[in-house]
């Protein structure tokens, strides 16, 4: 057999699983079609860590609770930004009060602590900038924000350092059952293995002889990212139950605010602006850094390990809370596989991510020390977020280092400031080109067909 376990798909779920499996004496590879791990994990650097209160499905609630409970330890071990901001589900009328009472009772039945119904004046004490007329709210102290890309890349880096092979730019074409084990055919190779875990959300292969799940109910989520000069900053995550302005808002690690609306169809800029203004107050278009549309998945994720005896496990579906539940899914599937293969714990497993500097968080003395060691930390590349050349070079040279501009942006936070890269993008392209010894015109944004520079328009002496 080429491998004991093949993990298909390098999203946050595949990366979490690779990390958990790397604690065992197993020969593991992860296959990902893109240039980088967790390319699709997030549009911005902040996601919500839910607590199992909001979801209707009991099993999903358990996964959310388990994931939520694991976050403190994981994020402090991996140096990943995570804050328990708290969340408010605001009720603006009697019907919504009834809804939050039902959610509260369900949370109690599920054994979720630190969730309470609070009255109007308490709501404004907790969130003074809220300018909607509320009658009450469901307040949870458990809910928080996390940097999803940091978590995914941390999982993958530690797995890599503990021997997992990452096969990037390799697309899985088919999976077949053999007399013993399985065969995975990719765009570059054919591999045999004892167990396959398929975390690719949509694809179906020969082994999936019947499509087990093809329902993909989704709505449209529109994000407006407001800059850190927006006057009505919320420090909690705020959800609105109001049908006309259904959505939520969350503070971001960059100091700004995400205002999101959930609608049945794609909506234009002005409609989005009206909806989010109902929740976060009048938004001046000057404060809008960017706007994105995406699918908002309600579906439950199913872990199908009914074929574990044949060596096949599949994670089916998509969820709006996949980041929250990824740690729980990784742990549960790992347990199932290691029990089935009777695997033993690896004695020399190193549960640590290689150190890196976040320059702007250091004291002046620490900054001086580092610049003395490496003068590239003295060269500021992203002025808005204070990211230095040293950090950009490190993000390329690290285990599973960045090979694209998006990879650098997500690892360092460069270009996510108020200027959105207007000042630093060209410098980053230059650094990546020199670090990887590639021509400037060969530098990619994130995928094969995403060249940053299409070609030279004139023959300059220097470019
Ligand atoms: C707008 C938005 C907001 C969200 N907000 C939150 C939030 O606040 N909190 C939260 O908990 N979650 C949130 N989520 C959910 C979460 O970010 C994603 O659902 C999650 O990242 C999905 O992870 P995954 O590993 O299941 O799938 P993916 O990230 O889709 O990973 C699957 C991987 O498989 C690869 N792949 C696909 N086909 C092949 C192939 N044939 N061969 C090899 N590789 C292949 C893909 O390139 C991909 O990297 C949000 C999602 C969206 C879209």
From TrEMBL:
<dbReference type="InterPro" id="IPR041854">
    <property type="entry name" value="BFD-like_2Fe2S-bd_dom_sf"/>
</dbReference>
<dbReference type="Pfam" id="PF04324">
    <property type="entry name" value="Fer2_BFD"/>
</dbReference>
<dbReference type="InterPro" id="IPR036188">
    <property type="entry name" value="FAD/NAD-bd_sf"/>
</dbReference>
<dbReference type="InterPro" id="IPR006076">
    <property type="entry name" value="FAD-dep_OxRdtase"/>
</dbReference>
<protein>
    <submittedName>
        <fullName>FAD-dependent oxidoreductase</fullName>
    </submittedName>
</protein>
<dbReference type="Pfam" id="PF01266">
    <property type="entry name" value="DAO"/>
</dbReference>
<feature type="domain" description="FAD dependent oxidoreductase">
    <location>
        <begin position="4"/>
        <end position="335"/>
    </location>
</feature>
<feature type="domain" description="BFD-like [2Fe-2S]-binding">
    <location>
        <begin position="380"/>
        <end position="433"/>
    </location>
</feature>
<dbReference type="InterPro" id="IPR007419">
    <property type="entry name" value="BFD-like_2Fe2S-bd_dom"/>
</dbReference>
<dbReference type="InterPro" id="IPR052745">
    <property type="entry name" value="G3P_Oxidase/Oxidoreductase"/>
</dbReference>
